[in-house]
Design a protein that fits this description.
six-stranded antiparallel beta sheet, alpha+beta, about 425 residues, 21 strands, single chain
């Protein structure tokens, strides 16, 4: 049984306040190389030049070539001088507030235990891909820095909430709105509040990875690489150890999960009218709307029309994963009617994050790229906890957390 959630202060490497909006960037894994290149084109200080440094190489270059990681290290050193980036004089904790429209969430930024990750005391719900782990592990080892932030959640704590409310009354280090309209505000907490947060997290029973499974896995692997002496570079002065990883932890009652939709390239030999008739035979089927109103309902865009069908109720003894709408859709429709055997590997299926909206589903079907789209109701944070607590793995592309943290505001050297 977990005794405590270990939260540790760290010496952040961070941009001067006046250049923080220019340095900060979207997370490395939400954009393609082409999108990263476009975002960084007119901004030499963009942190994408560190996290996606292949954007500076010739188009079509190998994104995993040795020069990519060497270029990332050179760019980090350059931005450190030119921005500049400043290293805190003492270990601190930070609060990071995200604001998107009316939604607001405030998380605690600090260093969390690699040992607890290894022992599965920091719960997971997603499989990782080796190639992505290899990439970020090499990135960490070459730069001797954790540049990607893991997104954690936990069951809300009144003690932590009280410290956060007090600390966010002070002037922030950063307060700006990024190009996508999301507000980012960061505070460095006082020594007294730092200690109170460490104590508050000591009573938090479990932490959960919401987003950033590859970043966490890579921090764990990088520790082993560094212990084996496989880094080509020594640690920077004042660097922290590799026994912790950089993360921001948000209380569960502030989390916002958007749906993750599915699109399929063809109808497995069926005509649209025949597939619609088969759906109507199997499920209650009515017209629209594009976004299903409740759990257990799926909206379907086929032949220019939206319909909604009701999934069968899971069995009373069903596992947490078996109760998810995306799993029921896979078992009841995608596999038997459309021949999608493994959604992780089948090239006929693709996934559309909820932030893009159902209009993106309509566009991809209307263009002829896809034949049919399925819009899902979002997974809840309770669903995530249930799956992780049961040591199960969610189907691919089950959750889309929004808004997202920015890279480059807080870096942890190791």
């Amino acid at each position: 049984m977990r005794i405590m959630a270990k939260l540790s202060p760290f010496r952040a490497l961070r941009p001067a306040a006046k250049v923080a909006p220019r340095v900060s960037s979207v997370p490395y894994d939400v954009v393609s190389t082409a999108e990263a290149r476009a975002l960084a084109r007119n901004e030499p200080l963009s942190f994408l030049r560190v996290t996606r440094s292949e954007l500076e190489l010739a188009e079509g270059a190998d994104a995993y070539a040795p020069e990519v990681y060497d270029r990332a290290r050179v760019n980090l050193d350059r931005i450190r001088t030119e921005a500049p980036l400043e290293l805190e004089s003492e270990p601190s904790l930070y609060l990071y507030r995200l604001r998107m429209g009316d939604h607001v969430q405030v998380g605690v930024a600090g260093a969390f235990s690699v040992d607890e990750y290894e022992r599965d005391l920091i719960k997971k719900h997603e499989r990782t891909r080796r190639v992505k782990e290899d990439d970020r592990t090499r990135h960490i080892v070459t730069l001797r820095a954790q540049t990607g932030v893991v997104f954690l959640t936990y069951r809300a704590s009144a003690a932590v909430d009280a410290v956060v409310a007090r600390a966010t009354a002070a002037p922030p280090l950063y307060d700006f709105v990024s190009a996508d309209g999301v507000g980012h505000t960061v505070w460095r907490v006082s020594a007294a509040d730092r200690d109170a947060l460490v104590t508050g997290f000591a009573a938090v029973p479990l932490l959960y990875i919401a987003d950033g499974h590859h970043r966490a896995a890579s921090a764990w692997r990088a520790r082993g690489e560094l212990a084996a002496g496989r880094s080509p570079h020594p640690p920077a002065p004042g660097a922290g150890g590799a026994d912790d990883f950089l993360a921001v932890a948000f209380p569960h009652d502030q989390m916002q999960i958007l749906p993750y939709h599915r699109v399929v390239r063809d109808l497995a030999g069926r005509e649209p009218a025949a597939l619609r008739a088969e759906l109507a035979r199997r499920f209650p089927l009515v017209e629209g709307p594009p976004q299903p109103a409740a759990k257990g309902r799926v909206s379907c865009y086929l032949d220019g029309t939206w319909s909604t069908f009701v999934l069968p109720e899971p069995a009373a003894a069903a596992s947490p994963v078996a109760r998810l709408d995306c799993q029921l859709l896979q078992e009841q429709v995608l596999s038997p009617l459309l021949g999608i055997g493994d959604p992780r590997t089948d090239q006929r299926i693709d996934f559309v994050g909820g932030i893009r909206g159902t209009a993106e589903l309509e566009r991809r079907v209307a263009s002829g790229e896809m034949a049919i789209a399925f819009a899902l109701h979002p997974v809840t944070i309770g669903d995530l906890f249930a799956v992780a607590d049961a040591d199960e793995i969610m189907p691919p592309k089950s959750t889309w957390f929004e808004p997202k943290l920015r890279d480059g505001l807080l870096v942890r050297e190791i």
